[in-house]
């Protein structure tokens, strides 16, 4: 297994190696040591590689991941797994702002807390946060699922489109056009699937509340102007 | 002798003119602001207010049909492994599939390719047709991130991080429900028929320090191959240019308020942003102050219509220009051929700007399958190529007259200004003087 020490190896070499996986290669598992808060660690992966980052990372770790499995054995800075297409990203610690921003697919698991704007403009990604999330999370969320085992901050789901939000704890406030919705059987099934994938045990889907779009702001109506 | 009051004609207010009165009535009747496409329609100081001096005893010209005047430009050589090489400094600005029909995007790609220049995606992602018909394609990275994916990022020739545009600095995209067809909805991952009011800020960065990190990420994802442009609306050109350079941009794209949009509020288009003419010198000054002029390229857009405009922008220090509205006109937008239909829509050829409604008789700003068919992408691409070639020839004609063997050798010294306003904005002496406002010495 290649071990890349970012204390001595330029970031460019790491990402270039991840982008140049040859068909049939046996070196599909990478270990990254001494990340020391580096930005853009393991970005643009487009092959089924496994990357274990031993430490905390800066901005945009695993950005645009397409098929890789990235685990950060530490915390992640802003924009972790931004615009992920597919694959899995696991953060053992906390995540900063914009976790999973605009993600289109794959699964992002944050075992600690996530800061503000978690899942902003999400477009199909599934995000499971074991702890709490900050304000303005899932802002303009288009599709995908955001599952929060803890609490959500202010203005959850503001200007939400079709993303589905599940929160087990309290929600400080809901954003414009976001409402609590019925938790139907298909949602319980999906929740159970996501919890299992995220390694969550001893938590039942029935413990969550579902939030989604009231769809009142989908087409501009002057009578709704106060909502903006 | 009886006294009769002499006739005094009715006097209309300059402040409350007919258009203003009509707008007040329209607002009162509908309860909503006017939304439209294109750029500002108000008259602002522009390239028309500058003239070239031409050669004289102290400057000798080049022969028009004999001596070479180079028009090529290289964009993005600062950091990118694969900079962009263009035959002409006139590029096609970003316009989205969604705002424009697939045929229109294809026509832009075809025309640009024939002319040896680049075209640009927009707020809606990259289509296969567009990629296939564009030899050099710039992929916009916008706040909405509609259609953004790493495969398209890698098959682009350059990446343009869009911070703002001249028609609406500080505003996001707007694509109303009537243009959201199945294909557009699918590319943008949104339900069909809803209004798409794109975000005005990027979702995962704010400010120049974050932008630097974002640019690093894009470079890492694309293995440092692609030039990275940063596009800003004409608002604070000195600082925006300096900050874009500091953040690591290879190219700065600066769009003045005459630059068009697919749709936004009329009040925004007409009242926010600076004229293109006022943007260029501060941006060039920022590049010069940083020692980066000609190392980081400056692309100017917003109201470029002719080779004269191109030459003037370049003389003021730009490396290239981009055209949007003019390119649409070249492929058939607002063509009098469709006058009868424009009349039915309550407008006239040359004034049609309800691009957001999707009813464009010319088949350009629409997703209606029947209207789209009206635009032949091959013929329209040919028209655009002709237009680009004419503009290039015009710019060469002027450059030769000024004794320049490359368009980039044009310089402010080749110009004079017709008005005080233009003189001040462009820092070009008023014709017949050696002075412009702000220079001192009067």
From TrEMBL, chain B:
Keywords: Oxidoreductase, Plasmid
Record has Ligase as a keyword: no
A single GO molecular function term of this UniProt record: glutamate synthase (NADPH) activity
Alphabetized SUPFAM superfamilies for the sequence: FMN-linked oxidoreductases (SSF51395)
InterPro entries, alphabetized: Aldolase_TIM (IPR013785), GltB (IPR024188), GltB_archl_type (IPR043578), Glu_synthdom (IPR002932)
Keyword rRNA processing: no
Family to which this protein belongs: Belongs to the glutamate synthase family.
The name this protein goes by in its record: Glutamate synthase like large chain
Organism name: Rhizobium johnstonii (strain DSM 114642 / LMG 32736 / 3841)
């Amino acid at each position: 297994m290649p071990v890349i020490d970012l204390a001595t190896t330029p970031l460019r070499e790491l990402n270039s190696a991840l982008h140049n996986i040859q068909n049939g290669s046996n070196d599909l598992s990478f270990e990254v040591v001494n990340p020391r808060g580096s930005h853009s660690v393991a970005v643009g992966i487009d092959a089924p590689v496994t990357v274990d980052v031993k430490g905390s990372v800066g901005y945009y770790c695993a950005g645009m991941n397409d098929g890789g499995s990235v685990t950060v054995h530490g915390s992640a800075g802003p924009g972790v797994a931004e615009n992920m297409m597919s694959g899995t990203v696991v953060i053992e610690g906390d995540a900063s702002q914009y976790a999973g921003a605009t993600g289109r697919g794959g699964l992002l698991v944050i075992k600690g807390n996530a800061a503000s704007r978690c899942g902003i403009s999400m477009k199909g990604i599934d995000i499971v946060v074991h702890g709490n999330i900050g304000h303005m999370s899932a802002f303009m969320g288009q599709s995908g699922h955001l599952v929060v085992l803890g609490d959500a901050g202010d203005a959850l789901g503001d200007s939400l489109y079709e993303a589905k939000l599940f929160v087990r704890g309290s929600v400080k406030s809901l954003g414009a056009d976001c409402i609590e919705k019925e938790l139907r059987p298909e949602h319980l099934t999906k929740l159970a699937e996501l919890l299992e994938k995220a390694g969550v045990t001893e938590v039942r889907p029935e413990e969550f509340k579902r939030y989604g779009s009231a769809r009142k702001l989908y087409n501009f109506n002057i009578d709704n102007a106060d909502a903006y | 002798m009886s006294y009769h009051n002499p006739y005094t004609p009715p006097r209309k207010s300059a402040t409350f003119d007919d258009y203003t009165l009509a707008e007040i009535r329209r607002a009162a009747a509908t309860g909503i602001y006017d939304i439209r496409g294109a750029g500002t329609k108000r008259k602002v100081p522009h390239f028309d207010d500058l003239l070239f001096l031409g050669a004289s005893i102290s400057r000798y010209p080049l022969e028009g049909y004999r001596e070479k005047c180079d028009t090529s430009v290289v964009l993005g050589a600062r950091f990118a492994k694969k900079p962009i090489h263009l035959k002409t400094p006139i590029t096609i600005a970003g316009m989205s599939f969604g705002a424009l029909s697939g045929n229109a995007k294809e026509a832009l790609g075809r025309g640009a390719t024939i002319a040896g220049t680049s075209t640009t995606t927009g707020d809606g992602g990259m289509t296969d047709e567009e990629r296939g018909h564009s030899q050099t394609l710039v992929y916009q990275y916008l706040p909405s991130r509609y259609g953004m994916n790493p495969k398209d990022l890698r098959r682009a020739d350059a990446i343009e991080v869009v911070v703002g545009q001249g028609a609406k600095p500080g505003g996001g995209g707007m694509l109303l429900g009537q243009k959201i067809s199945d294909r557009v909805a699918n590319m943008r991952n949104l339900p069909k028929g809803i209004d798409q009011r794109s975000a005005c800020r990027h979702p995962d960065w704010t400010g120049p320090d974050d932008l630097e990190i974002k640019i690093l990420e894009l470079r890492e994802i694309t293995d440092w191959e692609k030039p990275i442009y940063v596009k800003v609306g004409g608002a604070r050109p000195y600082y925006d240019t300096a900050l874009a350079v500091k953040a690591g941009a290879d190219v700065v794209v600066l769009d003045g308020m005459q630059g068009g949009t697919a749709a936004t509020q009329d009040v925004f288009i007409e009242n926010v942003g600076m004229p293109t003419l006022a943007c260029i010198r501060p941006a060039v000054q920022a590049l010069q102050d940083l020692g980066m002029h000609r190392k980081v390229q400056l692309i100017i857009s917003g109201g470029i219509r002719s080779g004269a405009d191109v030459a003037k922008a370049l003389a003021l220090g730009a490396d290239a220009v981009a055209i949007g509205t003019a390119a649409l006109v070249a492929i058939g937008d607002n063509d009098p051929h469709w006058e009868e239909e424009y009349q039915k829509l309550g407008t006239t050829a040359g004034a049609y700007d309800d691009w957001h409604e999707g009813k464009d008789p010319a088949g350009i700003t629409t997703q209606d399958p029947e209207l789209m068919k009206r635009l032949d992408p091959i013929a329209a691409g040919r028209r655009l190529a002709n237009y680009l070639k004419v503009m290039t020839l015009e710019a060469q004609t002027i450059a030769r007259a000024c004794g320049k063997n490359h368009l980039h050798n044009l310089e402010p010294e080749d110009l004079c200004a017709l008005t005080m306003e233009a003189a001040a904005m462009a820092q070009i002496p008023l014709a017949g003087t050696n002075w412009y406002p702000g220079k001192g010495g009067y």
